[in-house]
Design a protein that fits this description.
Length: about 110
Amino acid sequence: MPFVVRDQSGQIAEVHHARSQRAQEELTPQDPDLQQFLVTAGGSRVRDALSDSDHGLIRVLEDVISVLIDKRIIALTDLPAAAQEKLALRYSLRSRLADLRGIVGDSDELQLP
């Protein structure tokens, strides 16, 4: 059963898997307050976490596509035109960053003084 911490107005502010000094109130998973919290505050936290991970996942997908193309498993032209354009732009931008060696580190962020 979940344990919750409420704010001064009585709204759920935190949900925990186990009882703690802060989270003493136990609710059933069907509790309307808990359900509302999960839909609003909890849901927005999940959306924020997903959004934060998008950048890293995009880079992973870009690298996977590059490996597949390099190994001649797929050709760039096998992809839809919109995907080809986006990949071409990203390859061009990465090439420009590579040309800036010395002020650009491995993280692709400028290392200016």
